[in-house]
Amino acid sequence: MTINSGSTHEFFVDMTCEGCSGAVTRVLNKLDVKFDIDLPNKKVFIESDKDTDVLLETLRKTGKTVTYIGPK
Questions:
Q1: 8: helix, coil or strand?
Q2: Strand pairing class (7-13; 66-71)
Q3: Counting beta carbons within 10 angstroms of the beta carbon of residue 16, is it exposed (0 to 12), middle (13 to 18) or buried (19 or more)?
Q4: Contact call for residues 12 and 42 (beta carbons, < 8 A)
Q5: What is the C-alpha to C-alpha distance for residues 31 and 22, in angstroms, rounded to an integer?
Q6: Run of H or E including 23
Q7: Which residues form the HMA domain (predicted)?
Q8: Residue-by-residue pLDDT tens, the chain, 72 positions
């Protein structure tokens, strides 16, 4: 049995420090999605079948500027 884990979405998140990426980690852990944070390039890659609007709203809870770049 294979489980479709969804597609990977790329977001720009204006993170400047470990605290910022920690905030992103906290909000995304609540969504139960797989993700990677690229702090030097201020990017977050989320693997999910959730709507991108849901992902955007979740990332915005950090108070950071968030932009959806597109599917990866």
A1: strand
A2: antiparallel
A3: exposed
A4: yes
A5: 15
A6: helix 18-31
A7: 6-67
A8: 444 457 999 999 999 999 999 999 999 999 989 999 999 999 999 999 999 999 999 999 999 999 999 998
- The owner of tokens 């139960």 is 32
Residues 6+ apart with CB under 8 A from 68: 9, 10, 11, 52, 55, 56
Helices (H) and strands (E) in the chain, counts: 2, 4
Radius of gyration of the chain (CA): 12
Q: Which residues pair with 47 in a beta bridge?
A: 8, 34
AA identity, residue 51? D
